[in-house]
Write a structure and sequence with these properties.
The protein contains 14 helices and 23 strands. With about 500 residues, it is α/β, with parallel strands linked by helices. Helix 3 packs across helix 12. It is elongated, with a radius of gyration of 23 Å. The two termini are about 40 Å apart.
């Protein structure tokens, strides 16, 4: 093993150990027992194997379909919900091909193929529309299904969805959460580790040798690796706007596997969605807080709609007398409301949320911009030597971003630029996740990691997913389900 592989192995082992310990402390037992379920293993035409199907209360008028996540299993993962739902509804779940008791083989376990599999199974056992529930990778599959077959879904609930963000953005967030053990608040060591991990992940993502890529292309991956690989490679930019069914997003507030940033992106990107956060719950939210999760699910089903939050009315421009905020050599500052300008100099862990800003500039700073609007007649974001994360926000400006020696991470952002999306005076990197761009040069979604040299020309980083990124997602659910698996051993 070379030094790159050694560093990656040490990083992954350390992070997974922290995750496993955290999960063992949070999973709760349930007094509910599984009802009698019909089990049938049938041939399926999508992956050409056998899939095991589980049903309860087949005579009920309405159906609920439950889709498990990576390294999961239908009856096991949804045990608590099946016990309650089957009292009123026909419950259908299954072991996805490649997992549980279903056939495990080398195949293209893409979200799209899994959506076709769900279509086959539900078409066989259910007449008419149904409620669809998906967790983690199952949430990603459910989103893909709902976009592809909207007429079959009465309502959609997705929980702690894995993927969606660009693999590099996702890797950084997971690493930060695992190392610090928190989703909010950081210390000096955590800041250092976050910066280190970000640079390491960028290095791996951008520096995969062609020979390694060629070698990996001939390797037949086992199901978990294949499903993880296809999930992190899937671009959800066109999928999310096509999900037009009422949607409830449920998230564990302490999830370090699928960070809550993904939930904010989904809430902004899905046309009919609202978000419910369960404080203190982690990734396996339906196991850790079964009563609360099931209550949210039942309430959603009974209302037959997510009651999406109404779109905000057209706002007036930021007033000329709006305050100017200046931060110099401070940490942990939070800005909310209207500002004519926010200026940061050597500030760390700054948060701008629910804000409207006419002009923003930062030098040597680190900032998170969340659910905000930057509306400028000049430059929207001007950053020098800074790390800037923008989530579920809008940028409207002549030049959206002007960057020098900075790293920017934009997820679920809408950019309207009259002249240019990005200008640079010193090499910078930008990571786009399901970000809509409307400018003279582009009118499309961006979901990619790019390097922006001083000449201002965008250069894409190689798109092949490196082994560290695949490994991260292969194990992320596996580690978080060790406790569940242990409970099922006689």
């Amino acid at each position: 093993m070379d030094w790159k592989g050694f560093c990656c192995a040490v990083l992954l082992v350390s992070l997974f150990g922290v995750s496993a310990c955290s999960q063992q402390r949070t999973v709760q037992d349930s007094e509910n027992r599984l009802p009698e379920m019909e089990q049938e293993c049938i041939p399926e035409p999508v992956f050409n194997g056998r899939a095991c199907i589980y049903q309860a209360n087949r005579g009920a008028a309405e159906s609920v379909v439950l889709v498990h996540g990576l390294n999961g299993a239908g009856r096991r993962d949804w045990q608590h919900q099946i016990a309650r739902l089957s009292k009123e509804y026909h419950v259908l779940t299954f072991d996805l091909p490649g997992f549980g008791n279903s056939t495990k083989q080398s195949a293209s376990y893409t979200p799209e193929n899994y959506a076709r599999f769900v279509d086959y199974v539900t078409g066989r056992y259910i007449d008419g529309p149904f409620y669809l529930v998906g967790h983690s990778m199952g949430g990603a599959i459910s989103l893909s299904f709902s976009a592809r077959y909207p007429h079959k879904v009465k309502g959609l609930l997705v929980a702690n969805v894995a993927g969606v963000l660009h693999r590099l953005a996702l890797g950084k967030l997971m690493a930060r959460g695992w190392v610090t053990g928190e989703t909010e608040g950081e210390n000096g060591f955590g800041n250092f580790v976050q910066k280190m991990v970000g640079k390491v992940l960028e290095f791996f993502d951008a520096g995969v040798e062609r020979a390694q890529q060629a070698a990996e292309s001939h390797i037949e991956l086992e199901p978990s690796a294949s499903a993880a690989k296809w999930l992190v490679e899937t671009d959800f930019s066109e999928i999310l706007p096509a999900v037009r069914v009422p949607t409830l997003i449920v998230w564990g507030g302490s999830d370090t596997v699928a960070p809550i940033r993904t939930a904010w992106v989904l809430r902004k990107s899905l046309p009919q969605a609202r978000l419910a956060v369960i404080p203190g719950a982690g990734h396996m939210v339906m196991w850790e807080r079964p009563a609360r999760f099931t209550s949210l699910l039942l309430s959603f089903i009974k209302t037959e709609m997510a009651r999406p939050e109404a779109d905000a009315a057209e706002r007036q421009p930021v007033a000329d007398n709006a305050p100017v905020a200046q931060c110099v050599a401070r940490s942990g500052v939070v800005y909310e409301g209207d500002f004519s300008r926010i200026s940061l100099s050597n500030c760390d862990n700054v948060v701008i949320r629910n804000a409207r800003v006419r002009r923003f500039d930062a030098v040597g700073s680190r900032v998170d911009i969340i659910d905000s609007t930057i509306d400028s007649t000049g430059v929207g974001l001007e950053v020098i030597g800074s790390e800037v994360s923008v989530t579920a926000s809008d940028i409207r400006a002549d030049v959206a971003i002007r960057s020098a020696g900075s790293r920017l991470d934009l997820a679920g952002v809408t950019i309207q630029a009259d002249t240019a999306v990005v200008e640079s005076t010193r090499t910078s990197t930008l990571t786009f996740s399901v970000t809509r761009v409307d400018s003279p040069q582009y009118r499309r979604f961006f979901h990619r990691h790019v390097r922006l040299p001083a000449d201002g020309k965008l250069r894409p980083v190689p798109a092949t997913v490196p082994a560290p990124a695949i490994g991260t997602l292969i194990y992320l659910d596996y580690i978080y389900q060790l406790d569940i698996i242990w409970r099922w051993i006689p």
